[in-house]
Amino acid sequence: MIDDGEVENVVQLSKKTGIPQTQIRIRMQLLRLTPKIVRYIKHHEDGKSNVYISERRLCGIALLSTHEDQLAAFKQLISKSSFRKLALTRVSRRASVVSR
After folding, report:
1. What is the pLDDT of residues 34-71, one digit of tens each?
2. Residue 71: C-alpha distances to residues 46, 77, 78 (Å)
3. How far apart are CA 68 and CA 74, in angstroms?
4. Cα–Cα distance, 37 to 34 (Å, whole number)
5. Is the separation of the CB atoms in 91 and 41 below 8 Å?
6. Among 27, 38, 67, 75, who pairs with 34 as Cys (CB 3.0-4.6 Å)?
């Protein structure tokens, strides 16, 4: 909607969609993730994965400036044995609100 010119900024988008600004900003930040990470998440979103990845952790990774740095941080995250059970965050669905 922002790209199409329907709204000029996050504040207007929030008012138009009823989604809180913070959620929109998080979803926009997740769009910065390297495609390899997004593909991994889409492939493992069946709920059978033993890795839990929160939006908060993904946002931290998305802030890294290069795709190589993002991948290195993501590999470190998913290799930690303390993350067991729970389903992956569904980035593709949540990010789709911004791209509408």
Report:
1. 999 999 888 876 656 666 678 888 999 999 999 999 99
2. 21, 10, 11
3. 10
4. 6
5. yes
6. 67
Which tokens is 21 given? Answer: 């600004």
* Alpha-carbon dihedral 94, 54, 76, 48, rounded to 10 degrees: -80
C-alpha distances in Å from residue 84, one per residue of 25, 37, 48, 80, 89 = 28, 18, 10, 9, 14
pTM score, whole prediction? 0.65
Residue at token pair 């993002």 = 70
Using left for φ > 0, alpha for ψ between -120 and 50, and beta otherwise, residue 43 falls in alpha
- If 0-12 CB within 10 Å is exposed, 13-18 middle and 19+ buried, where does residue 61 land? buried
